[in-house]
Amino acid sequence: MKAIIIGGGIGGLSAAIALDRVGIETAVFEQADQLREIGAGLTVWINASRALGKMKAAEGLLRCGSPVTRFEVRSWRGKVLAVSPFAILERKFGAAVYVCVHRGEFLELLKGMTDTGKIHCGSRCIGFDEDSSGITARFANGAEESGDIVVGADGLHSVIRARLHSEPKARYAGYTCWRGFATSTGDYPRTWELNSGDRGNGFQHIPAAKGGYSGLEQKTRRKEWLTRRAAANPKCWNAIGTGFLRYRN
Ligand SMILES: Cc1cc2nc3c(=O)[nH]c(=O)nc-3n(C[C@H](O)[C@H](O)[C@H](O)COP(=O)(O)OP(=O)(O)OC[C@H]3O[C@@H](n4cnc5c(N)ncnc54)[C@H](O)[C@@H]3O)c2cc1C
């Protein structure tokens, strides 16, 4: 059995690792000339961390990420409105409930677990054909690849999904999200804070420490800040500043 995986992002590489582990041959096709991720954070919830555990990637996840032990919803003035103590859930389910990683570092982890000979960059899939003998994926560079199944891991504008389901195009729903990383040398709580703003605005910061690659003593600590609908909204930018200053001081 051979699976052709379209897309070399977090989804595509995870699929390749998981399928390899159950003896299914894989080939990953990525349109970009190299595998890369954006410089933002990704929070891995318990369902994903359990799946990563089955893929023998749980230790690596904790090496490059930071478990968050508490979630606080706050008013725009900083008053705590609700708390979720993740530590209790962690004890109950026996796996990290919420781990924040840098997307690039997480992709590197998955890449390190994938046979790189099976990853074909510079291969933009333009469609596939199917008959009784299997499927053949077609690529913009003229190449073709045959297999038994195709896995569409090609993101939001997936050509595989469009071919299977002829979905309507993505529709802008009115939410804009600005994301970034800030480095910090100080200590800070392992708390994910969601600061509510007015009219659907909000500002979150999530500790996303990267700790101790072997041989390195120094730890880089990062905070991720994330805003919604921040564009052209001075109140929201104020919230970003306030949230940042609270952590910095
Ligand atoms: C603002 C925001 C925050 C989010 N935060 C979280 C979070 O905290 N936790 C969480 O679990 N999820 C989060 N998500 C969702 C998560 O980011 C996505 O579900 C996840 O990144 C999807 O990964 P993927 O590999 O399937 O797709 P992508 O990351 O989109 O990767 C698709 C890959 O396929 C390649 N590709 C595309 N088209 C083709 C083609 N035709 N041929 C070949 N290759 C192709 C692309 O170049 C890319 O490398 C968030 C999403 C957004 C928008």
Set out the fold topology.
Layout: E1 2-6, H1 10-21, E2 25-29, E3 41-45, H2 46-54, H3 58-64, E4 65-67, E5 70-74, E6 80-85, H4 86-93, E7 98-102, H5 103-112, E8 119-120, E9 125-131, E10 134-139, E11 144-147, E12 149-152, H6 159-165, E13 177-184, E14 191-196, E15 202-207, E16 221-228, H7 234-248
Parallel strand pairs: 1-2, 1-12, 2-8, 5-14
Antiparallel strand pairs: 3-7, 4-7, 5-6, 9-10, 10-11, 13-16, 14-15, 15-16
The site of flavin-adenine dinucleotide has 21 residues, from helix 1 and strand 3.
List the defining traits of the structure above:
globular; FAD/NAD(P)-binding domain; 4-stranded parallel β-sheet; alpha/beta; D-Amino Acid Oxidase, Chain A, domain 2; 2 domains; disordered C terminus; 249 residues; 6-stranded mixed β-sheet; binds flavin-adenine dinucleotide
Write a compact overview of the structure shown.
By secondary structure, this protein is of the alpha/beta class. The protein has seven helices and 16 strands. α1 (10-21) packs parallel to α5.
Largest pleated sheet: 6 strands, mixed
Q: What is the helix tally? A: 7
CA distance, first residue to last residue: 57 Å
Q: What is the averaged pLDDT score?
A: 78
